[in-house]
Amino acid sequence: MIQMANLVKKFGERIAVDGISLTIEQGAIFGLLGPNGAGKTTMIRMLTMLTRPTAGMLSINGWQLPQDEQKIKQILGIVPQHFNLDADLTAQENLELHGRLQHIPRVKRRQRILELLEYVELAERADDKVQNLSGGMKRRLMIARALLHEPQVLFLDEPTVGLDPQVRRRLWDLIRRMAADKLTVMLTTHYIEEAEFLCGRVAILEKGRLIALHSPAELCQRLGVYVVEWNVDEGRQTKFFHSRGEAASFAGTLTMTTTIRRTNLEDVFVELTGRKVVD
Questions:
Q1: How far apart are CA 26 and CA 7, in angstroms?
Q2: What CA dihedral angle connects 139, 145, 148 and 152, to 10 degrees?
Q3: Taking CA atoms, which of 12, 117, 208, 254 is between 20 and 30 Å from 22?
């Protein structure tokens, strides 16, 4: 569905994306991770045609950029990080406005709006003004708006930022349902547990380069399934092992209090980048 080969983006002498190659299959939920400045936003901007690559190949659904730009635009849906709904309009009116801008025929537009309000569980709030909706409802409405023209690929930029845990989980269920309906979803997130829960594969970027690409489980397996943690004056220390027995044996050699637990995607991220995702 999405293919990149040796993708490069430069801003003057600065290289923001440095020779990235990867493929994303149809119906996948794909996560893009990296500390601030790693190149995530630039990649999304290239994929959504807000900026053009300096070099390399980029194709979506078999069409290549920039020559097939108009065809590709028709199959993309984009949900930005920041709310950009019209607060003075109702949920239904926001979708109506967007449908008209997309030149969707009236009968189909009305049917699609009703379907999507039901799909994102906002049918009962259709006539409420956006300013009266909660953050989670606004995010679901933005997803409905992005799906209005029936795209094949959906880009989600920090889809649950600022939302409480219960609302985030509800959005996770919606994202998984979209993928089950064969929609390809690409998301960026600062919530590592979100990527671990949702994504079949993740790409970790650092200074514009692709430093890891696999399923969260496989990345953890490669690092070591179990981790021993302990604290010293310099801060937290960790060591990874491929069996709990090995981890326990090592922990037994330490004189301070230790914790043995399963490795998670955040461990992988910190080991590869040397930083927390929000750094």
A1: 20
A2: -60
A3: 12
DSSP states along 184-226: EEEEE-S-HHHHHHH-SEEEEEETTEEEEEE-HHHHHHHH-SE
∠ Cα 97 102 103 (to 5°): 95
Phi, psi of 200 (to 5 degrees): -70, -35
Q: Where exactly are the structural domains of the chain?
A: 2-215, 219-273
Output the six-digit token pair for 212.
């890891």
* pLDDT at residue 37, rounded to an integer: 85
| Measured distance CA(263)–CA(260) in Å, rounded | 9
| Residues 163, 205: Cα–Cα separation, whole Å | 25
Q: pTM score, two decimals?
A: 0.88
pLDDT band of 279, cuts 50, 70, 90: very low
Q: Which helix (H) or strand (E) holds 7?
A: strand 2-11
CATH assignment, 2-215: 3.40.50.300
Residues 6+ apart with CB under 8 A from 267: 220, 223, 227, 238, 240
pLDDT, average across residues 132-157: 94
Q: Give yes or no for a contact between 251 and 260, defined as CB atoms under 8 angstroms apart.
A: yes
Strand partners, 2: 24, 60
Mean pLDDT of the chain: 92
